[in-house]
Amino acid sequence: MQEGCRIVWKMFIIRVGMRFRSSISSKVFVCDVKIVDISRNQCYNRINYRSQLRPKVRRIAVKLNSRRTILVGLAFLSICTFWQMYDSVMTLILTDTFKLNETFAGAIMAADNVLALFLLPFFGALSDKTSTRIGRRMPFIVGGTAAAAILMNLIPLLDDRYAASPSTGTLVLFIIVLGLLLVSMGTYRSPAVALMPDVTPKPLRSRANAIINLMGAVGGILYLGLAAVLYPASKTKGVEHVSYRPLFFIVSMIMVVAVVVLYLTIKEPKLEAENQKLEAAHPQWNLATDDGTGHEVLPAPVKRSLSFLLVSISLWFIGYNGVTTWFTKYVEAVMGEGLGGASTCLLVATAGAIVSYIPIGALAAKIGRKRTIQCGIVLLAACFMLGYVLTTTYSSIQPIMYVVFALVGLAWAAINVNSLPMVVEMCRGSDIGKFTGYYYTFSMAAQVVTPIVAGSLMRAIDYRVLFPYAALFVALSFVTMCFVKHGDAKAEAKKGLEAFEDMDN
User: Fold this and answer.
1) Are residues 82 and 219 both part of a single domain?
2) Were both Cys, which of 342, 349, 424, 434 would link to 405 (CB 3.0–4.6 Å)?
3) When comparing pLDDT for 188 and 274, which is higher?
4) pLDDT (average), residues 489-497
5) Integer CA distances (angstroms), 422 to 298, 468, 479, in order
6) Pick from 228, 244, 251: which is nearest to 91 by CA?
7) Which CATH number characterizes residue 176's domain?
8) Which residues contact 259 (CB under 8 A, 6 or more apart)?
9) Which domain does 192 fall in, by range?
10) Are residues 265 and 308 in the same domain?
11) CA-to-CA distance for 285 and 425, rounded, in angstroms?
12) What is the reported pTM?
């Protein structure tokens, strides 16, 4: 009888031990239950924390390397410094020096967005397939920056030459150089942006993208400060021709120095291999599946989420860029305000976005990217409708409008920081550049379309249609985002014991 009870008791202990082990095997440690028969009347179980069935558990520190992310962001800093200068100065050169009308000058200024529709996905996908000693992205970043630095210094030389002696040949040469410059910038924008997800674990990409956007803002601020010092109103007022050689040269040097520091400090192949190893230890991060032939493919639900996300990106860019493009003209026509008031509002919006980037990245890590984006969408649409009320009620810009535009910047940061990480979250590791190109294709397409559509509506109906137009498209993006079911990741989703993961040696 006692022998039978002892056997039953052994079996019970073993069964419990197996269930216990199964229930926690994905968490902190594994318990191995061992029965030791000391005597006929004694038995006990011992928990062996050094399990022989599974290797010793290590805690994975999934923590963003901020210093490294800042260095990676140097590429984006160089890009934003250039484009800030390009948008500010190129219109002056085209209209003041070459005497082009606004329509032709506008067409040339829109050429960069049109080229981007083709160049960004092409070079993004090409960088995915590139394999060199210095990495996949770095050849495009270094080569594109070098070409751009040379070509951009030819722009003010041709500008000065035409001002001194106008000729059709100089104009044609200027257009050719400008086209080559835009192509050189297009060669490395997608690879530069793709470098961040290459070296950053998926759950941390919103925080990393917040730093990247902040670095871009720093680039814009560098140019604005430089322009303010070199070209104050006292030096340019009444001057027949302004030479931009010093400005273009210093900006090109900022770009070169930024990329040189990036090249010397970021060892792309090593960091990419480390990130791939980490992601291999977390297969749950990969949304792609094996098609049975050894190739990874995206399941249909993931593709559907990606499609809705890309449509959402186009919709909120249509709304936001419609306002940023036409706001100066809007306040002039509706409120009788000049350039200064409109520029101040847009500057406040930019400042609101800058101070929000890092907090938004942290918030997305806690509540999720999708929810953060949707909160930003609701806030942005509400601010646009409030902007309509304020601009149609008052005849001048009121202090409350600065508050509204600060909230516009906050809302845009919530959207912009998380959208690219969601896109690249859905791709295979080998397709990051291509998917980055997808992101820019849909965002750039919106920026090509919305100035034309919004301008046509304002001319045909009334200028007051601008804010409702923007709010409508932003609100539509909320609807499409509801169908996005993938691409979200929360770095801090696991708490307590679940913060530990099992890794094989």
Assistant:
1) yes
2) 349
3) 188
4) 43
5) 14, 28, 17
6) 244
7) 1.20.1250.20
8) 74, 75, 78, 141, 142, 145
9) 66-284
10) no
11) 8
12) 0.70
